[in-house]
Amino acid sequence: MPSGPPAARRQLVSLVVAAVVAAGLFLVLWALLSSSLALSVRGSISVLGLVVAGALATASTAIRARWSTGGRRRAWRLLSLAGLTALVGNVLAALLGDPESVGSSPVGDAAIAVALLLSIASLTWFTQVNRSRVDLAVMALDGVILGTAVLMIAASLVYDQLLASGGSVSLLAGTVIPILDVVLATVALILLRRTRGPDRVALGLVAAGFIVYTMTDLGYAVRIAAGTFDFGSVLDLGWIGGYLLLALAAWWPTRVTDVSREDGVAGAEDWDTAVVFGVLLVATMVEVIGDGPGRLLSIEALLWLVLIGGAGVRQGLIARDNRHLRQSLEDQVRERTADLRQMGRETEVLLSSVADGIYGVDLEGRVTFVNPSGAEMLGYATGGLAGMVAHDVFHAPDAEGRPFPFDACYIEEAVRSRVVTNGEEDLYVRADGDVFPVEITASPLVDDDTGEVRGGVVVFRDVTSRREVERVKNEFLSVVSHELRTPLTSIRGSLGLLSGGVLGALPEQAASMVDRALVSSERLTRMINDILDLERIESGNLALEVQPHDVDELLAIADREMSGLAASRDVRLVRSTGCPGLVLADHDRIVQSLTNLIGNAIKFSAPGSVVELDARLVGDDVEMRVRDRGRGIPADRLETIFERFVQVDSSDMRQEGGSGLGLAICRGIVERHGGRVWLESEVDVGTTAHLSLRAAPTPGVDAVPAAGGATAGGPSAPSA
Ligand code: ADP
């Protein structure tokens, strides 16, 4: 385990100490090596300096490896190993031979060669960051060009002399080490160019150390070849300086121990191009100049320079252009990312601050997200529902305990059929098994670009308290109604008696007042009965006596009951007969429903118009219809008027004496029968009320499905 970098202050103190020690050592050695001491003494001092500096570099890089992690840790370790190898080689050579043989003995040379290889490997670890393939290829090509160019320079300046020395220089010292030096310098140069981020200075020092070392090696090779090398000269300071630079690099303060990503390299292309072509240009110049003093400014030489220089400038311009392009793209991406982040934050605040539960599902109905309110209502932690199938986990089974079919679930409908379900009531199960009523809105989640459905979003609201309030309200209404009924009956009875003249003839004004009071008390009684009926229906206490009844007969009774009202309004009731069906129904309740529908048809028809009644078989059902040619109902009210106390126009209550309860009761009764009641209407044309009940088996009559077929003689039945 790495021990982690020490605190910043301690790092700084260590660096200062290391720098002072390195500078001190360097200056002392410089003074000694450039002094007039005997060569053998200076040689020993050099060896000692090399060993001390090498030991410092080895120890420092080993310590740095301990702080670091990942690729950087490996790089520092390799570097430390390289230092150790070179050091061991130097010591062995010093022990095996006389001090002057250090660096030129086979053991020393081999150790240096291995140390160089280890250093190259170490540098490649320093550059271990994720790069694109193209970037890697460019880096490799840069390396090839730089390396070749440096080799060209070296070949011109050094190798001629090395080769000219014949066999006096070993293969290692004369060829392998200089080539390895060139490779190391090239890699170090590229590393320096390519590295950004917090460790840049440290890596710069490493690269500088190698470059100094390499240059000294080359100088050494040249001198060896020329036979002018003496160990103990100022040249040795190059190796010592290289070691010291490596040691310093290891002590450079660091904020991070590993770099997985190099920071922005804006402008890197310009520099890369300049470095690559600059070195190429120098190589060309050296080649050209190397051809001899007479050809220094020859046309050919000039053309070469123009060629390389032109290509370099061109490449530089392209690189600059690319940089601008990339910069603007990066700016755009940064802006969009900031926008997206802002949007994400807003959405998050929105989702977490609403009181309603909101969850999203994928195409399989699995929860993809749920807001905090939703998770809390369902009794889960916010992330606890992710990945679960919403329908299986919290969709409550039906009243009989059967699982609700997934195909009929609004989540499935939203995803499959893109149906938006609004205001549907449902039951959800909490994590602890509690069932609670909810009102939901489910919408499909459609991809704007492709138009494909990606999933769905469901918004739900716990309506337990609303249901409770409604229950208390209904209970209150029913209690009050019950309590009102008895005194009202006696008021109505008394008024009836008064109006009937039991106490003698009343004065005209008093008689009319009593009549109005009687009408009002009857209306109030009707309303109270309606409220009580509704309460019975909604609480499930409406007792039904279901038996097969003849449809024609039911219509006839309703017709008879409403004939008085029809006559008073000058409306003609026309009834078709001959419907073959029997229906399973509570006689009085269905007649009550029919009279309400017929009453509405009469009330909202103009005098002189006709209200038609008929019935027909539709599949297994019998459909009774009441059709008027009255004022009609706007399409958006066709459903709402089935709610309690809802009327199309507030004046309907005053003018027609209704309360807005009739249709609610009618639907309650019919639905308790398992049937359906609905309206179709066109404003100013008329309304058709449909009441559909399950047909009872008719003995001796085949119930032929007759969708839309009128079954009656008499006036043709309008088809709805
Ligand atoms: P009420 O008739 O007692 O007001 P209903 O629930 O029976 O209560 O009817 C509710 C409202 O629906 C009526 O007040 C009226 O506005 C409208 N309505 C019902 N039937 C018709 C119809 N056939 N034509 C026009 N409007 C109608």
Could you walk me through the main structural features you see in this protein, from its secondary elements to its overall organization?
The protein is an alpha+beta fold. The chain folds into 5 domains: about 260 residues; about 80 residues; about 110 residues, Beta-Lactamase, CATH 3.30.450.20; about 70 residues, Signal transduction histidine kinase, dimerisation/phosphotransfer (DHp) domain (Helix Hairpins, Orthogonal Bundle), CATH 1.10.287.130; about 160 residues, 2-Layer Sandwich (Heat Shock Protein 90), CATH 3.30.565.10. The chain contains 19 helices and 12 strands. The strands form 2 sheets. Strands 6, 7, 8, 9, 10, 11 and 12 form a 7-stranded mixed β-sheet that branches. A 5-stranded antiparallel β-sheet has the order 2-1-5-4-3. Strand 1 and strand 2 form a beta hairpin. The longest helix has about 55 residues. The chain is rod-shaped, with a radius of gyration of 51 Å. The C terminus is likely disordered. Adenosine-5'-diphosphate binds next to helix 17 and helix 19. The site of adenosine-5'-diphosphate has 20 residues, from helix 17 and helix 19.
Summarize the SSE layout with pairings.
Layout: H1 8-33, H2 39-67, H3 70-96, H4 106-126, H5 133-164, H6 171-194, H7 200-226, H8 236-251, H9 268-290, H10 299-353, E1 357-361, E2 367-370, H11 372-378, H12 390-394, H13 410-417, E3 421-429, E4 435-446, E5 453-462, H14 464-499, H15 508-539, E6 546-550, H16 551-568, E7 572-575, E8 582-586, H17 587-603, E9 610-618, E10 621-628, H18 651-656, H19 662-672, E11 676-682, E12 686-696
Parallel strand pairs: 7-9
Antiparallel strand pairs: 1-2, 1-5, 3-4, 4-5, 6-8, 8-12, 9-10, 10-12, 11-12
Helix pairs in contact: 1-2, 1-8, 2-3, 2-8, 3-4, 4-6, 5-6, 5-7, 5-9, 6-7, 7-8, 9-10, 14-15, 15-19, 16-17, 17-19
The structure holds adenosine-5'-diphosphate.
Pfam families: HATPase_c, HisKA, PAS_9
Catalytic activity: ATP + protein L-histidine = ADP + protein N-phospho-L-histidine
Domain Histidine kinase: 479-697
